[in-house]
Design a protein that fits this description.
31% helix; 6-stranded mixed beta sheet; 11 helices; 26% strand; Archaeosine Trna-guanine Transglycosylase, Chain: A, domain 4; 2 domains; alpha/beta
Length: 297
């Protein structure tokens, strides 16, 4: 997309109309995996192609991907990237260029650094593109399951332990925690590893909190179970099935804005592993009972 998406000399490619809105801060490994396909272009939508991370600076990306890396900031960048309402630099020329590449058969990664797609200018680009070409398929990175990986979500303790031990909650007379609350949403559905983050929520270690939440009998019983439990941090500790995403629920565990609905949660022997924000990919080779995980899909 050099010089505002000037025409490419590639012709005769099979038509492909797929775009992938990606954040390098959230989908770095996935971007590298998608770029293995030679018909994929890295469309850098940042107004200025700079990052404090050297691997995501323009020079590095150009050296890595060559002609398949296209800077598009002059056309598709957000003029107000430092704050204010989103304003695309040159919408008409930018969208025209994207359509040109799509009709030549390229798959396009529309890349920015923002973690939240809902507030990123890439979402505006995608919406404008589909207004003129509704046949374009928009593939969310969260829905892409690599054959060598499984999705994972990092959760602070004691919440991760509570989710993965529903039988103990039932024994205490408390409904299992089927909702994990987030300020973001995802279209992914399927098996999900549960990772315990580096921090333990102080309130979950206070018996008074559980008594306040569930009453003297049930709250005290749950607090007793929590205080005697061994809780790993910075490790994969369980697995569940992500079956839905809700914006309202009568469950005592739901606090919004979005609730990831988790079924069939159970613990795994803890595996030390670094966490990330949002959903992230973990190599299947890391998990000992690989056949069991694959069969849950």
């Amino acid at each position: 997309m050099e010089k505002c998406l000037m025409a490419s000399s590639n012709e005769g490619r099979k038509t492909s109309m797929e775009v992938y809105p990606c954040s390098y801060s959230a989908h770095g490994p996935l971007i590298e995996w998608l770029m293995r396909e030679t018909s994929t272009l890295f469309i850098d939508t940042r107004y200025k192609a700079y990052s404090v991370l050297p691997q995501w600076q323009e020079k590095t990306l150009r050296e890595r991907y060559g002609k398949r890396y296209r800077t598009a900031g002059a056309c598709l960048g957000n003029l107000n990237y430092k704050g204010g309402p989103i304003q695309i630099a040159d919408v008409e020329k930018g969208i025209r260029g994207l359509l040109m590449y799509l009709r030549e058969g390229y798959k396009l990664l529309l890349v920015c650094g923002c973690r939240q797609y809902e507030t990123c200018h890439v979402k505006v680009i995608v919406e404008l593109l589909r207004q003129v070409a509704p046949e374009v398929a928009v593939l969310s990175p969260d829905t892409i399951v690599r054959p060598d990986s499984i999705k994972c979500l990092s959760i602070r303790q004691s919440w991760a332990w509570i989710i993965t031990h529903p039988e103990i909650l039932l024994k205490c007379g408390i409904e299992p925690k089927l909702h994990e609350n987030r300020e973001w949403t995802t279209k992914y559905r399927g098996p999900l590893l549960l990772h315990a983050g580096i921090k333990i929520e102080k309130e979950t270690q206070d018996p008074a909190y559980w008594i306040w939440k569930f009453g003297e009998s049930s709250g005290a019983a749950l607090a007793h179970e929590i205080m005697k439990a061994e809780m790993a941090t910075k490790a994969i500790v369980g697995i569940a099935d992500l079956v839905d995403m809700v914006t309202a629920s009568e469950s005592v565990w739901y606090t919004g804005s979005y609730g990831l609905v988790l079924h069939n949660a159970r613990p795994l022997t803890s595996i030390t592993y670094p966490g990330q924000q949002m959903l992230f990919d973990v190599p299947l080779s890391l998990i000992e009972n690989r056949e069991t995980l694959v069969s849950t899909k």
